[in-house]
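Translate sequence into structure tokens.
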Amino acid sequence: MKDVSQKPDSLRVARATATLHAPAACIELLRSGETEKGDPLKTARVAGILAAKRTDELIPLCHPLPIHRADVHYELGETSVRVLAEVQTIGPTGVEMEALTAASLAALTLYDMLKPYAEPDELHIEDCRLERKTGGKSHYRRTLAQARSAAVVVLSDTVASGAKTDTAGAYVRDALMEAGFDPVEYAVIADDAAVLGNLLQSLVEGGISLVVTVGGTGLGPRDITVDTVRPLLDVEIPGIMETARAFGQKRMPFAMLSRGVAGYVRDTLVLTFPGSRGGASESLAATLPGLIHLLETGRAGGRHPGGYGESA
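Result follows.
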């Protein structure tokens, strides 16, 4: 099964439809709600909602999801009924299969309740399809539309001395390249406030769009990154690293100890990630969609963003 643990939660909505064709007399039974098995529309609605909530039991490769809302509605024609199922969740993966399952099961329930009143060739289900979905990769992009420059600065005495190989910063560098950043500079320095301050000043003066530091966000005596970066910020954006910590906290209880900050130094967006491979990768996974949006619509893109959602 595909690992979705690194995908951030988002509001996801899917709508699916299925159409049952039936004789006009059967459609009138749907309107009246009078069959020997009860009211077909009400029964099928319940069946569809239950099917959406139990899709992971019916389809082996589906991830179990908390279904926050599921509903089934109908459009009645002269010789057909169109089933419309909409499902909503907040999670790391979408609810397309839940919506399709709800529409299919509701249509099958109608078929079952109407079959005593029609010949077998007079009832058939067709055109089961996903009409729309929102949320996730299709709604919140994780790749730049146009390349922007970035730099990854690793702060570690042991890596700078050659005693240890960097994996966290290298991961962030490669992931930013995959997201469309180009060029992506990469540097490893010791935990030295003066060296970091001078390097940041040079990168900002060079007009770089994004700087991500990796390491030095903890509580040790050599963790100087946050104390060096925070005074340089012209505009602090607390929500960026709050999001990273909340995402990490669901996966590792020590994420709450990261002091990371983020914001603009002039027109350069600066983020401070933890130095562990897990902490850095989770921080990027949590924040990348928001970073893409901010860089393309905000300060570095020539306009100021209008809060979350669409730009003002």
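Note: DSSP finds ten helices and ten strands in the chain.
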